[in-house]
Structure formats: C-alpha cells, structure tokens
Amino acid sequence: MEGKEAIVGRIISDAEARAAQAKQEAAARADAMKEEAAARARTLLEEGAAALEKEAAERIARRETGAQLDCGKRMLAAKRGVIDAVFARAEAIACALPKEEYLAVLGQLLGAYAEEGDEVVLAAGAPVGEKELVSLAVFSAKKLRFAGKTGEFSGGLRLVNARCEQDLSFGALLEEGRAEHEREIAAAFPAEI
C-alpha cells in the first residue's frame, strides 16, 4: 500500500504544484489586467479632462464674444442717444433764436424754397407773427399768402400749394442733413469710450 500511497501522494503533490502554478499565473494575469485597466482609466481621465478643458475654453470664448457684442450694442445705443440729443438740442436752439435771427432764417427758407403764390404756415411757437413775416421782401416778391400758425411742428414753416406741401420745419431740415452730420458727430467721439 505504500506504493499506492506514494503514487497518490505524488499525484496530489503534482496537482497541488500545478494548482499553485495556475494560481500564480492567474494572479499574474489578474495583476496585468489591473495594470492595463488602471492605465486605460488614467488615459480616459486625461482625455476626459482635456475634453472638459477644451469645452470650458470654447464656452469662455463664446461668452467673451457675446459680451463684446453686447458691449458694442450698448456703445452704439449710447452713441445714438448722444446723436439724438445733439439733434434735439440743435432744434431747440433753432426754435429759441432771437426774433430777428429767426425772421432772417425764415426769409432765407422762403427765398430758397417758396414758389409764387404759396401759402405759408408758421409754427405755433415761432417768435414772429404774420406782421413780421409779411414784411419780408421775399414774401411780397413771390406773392406768398399767410395761412396762419399751427402747433403741428416746433419751429420753422411749411409751404403749401395746389401740388404739394413742403415741410421746412427745423426738425425736418435737421433730419434731412442728419446722415451727413451723424458721421461728423460720430467721428468726434473718442475711438474707445
């Protein structure tokens, strides 16, 4: 029996040795797989971090661009507001001219634009009246007729005839030259406000 026991012992010993070797090989494969998984995880984390950094940089760039556009819109609106105020102030100054200067401006307008027989409508707030207006040489030379004062416009006059009506109010005259003067006014702004 001893021979059988020795054979069985050897078989068991060989099986234990093979099991130990298989265990070592499995442990080595497991360690290699863990290393590979850890390396892959590190790579994925680095790629993810890089992607997040790129996305964050893109978002920041988009927000900066949006902020610059918003700032530009606000600056444009502020400049437009200043230009509107300049033209409103110019109209107010024209409407507040002293009587003699106001009458001289009306005389120039009538001389340049009136046709024979036109009716002249004066702004309600004009510092001159019918008496001063009809005393102008151009008024009688062009056989103009006084049509009264109206509150429809702030200053200047309107010419009316059978064919048309000409708006020579100070507001309309300023608006007519606005495009050209807007560029001049805008050019007077500092480059960077």
Task: Tell me what the structure shows.
The chain has 193 residues and is α+β, with helices and mostly antiparallel strands. The chain is 71% helix and 11% strand. It contains six helices and four strands. A four-stranded mixed sheet has the order 2-1-3-4. A hairpin with a 4-residue loop joins β3 and β4. α1 packs across α5. The longest helix has 94 residues. The termini are far apart.
Biggest β-sheet: strands ordered side by side in the sheet: 2-1-3-4
Helix tally equals 6
| Major beta sheet summary | 4 strands, mixed
Mean pLDDT comes to 88
SSE run: HHEHHEEEHH
> What structural class should be given to the helix and strand makeup?
alpha+beta
What oligomeric state do the depicted chains represent?
single chain
Report, as a whole number of angstroms, the end-to-end distance.
Answer: 109 Å
Number of strands: 4
pLDDT < 50 runs, ≥5 residues = none
Overall geometric form? rod-shaped
Strand content: 5-15%
Query: Nearest-angstrom radius of gyration?
Result: 47 Å
Helix proportion of residues, in percent? Answer: over 70%
Q: What order do the helices and strands come in, and which of them pair?
A:
Layout: H1 2-95, H2 99-113, E1 119-123, H3 130-134, H4 137-141, E2 145-150, E3 156-160, E4 165-169, H5 170-176, H6 178-188
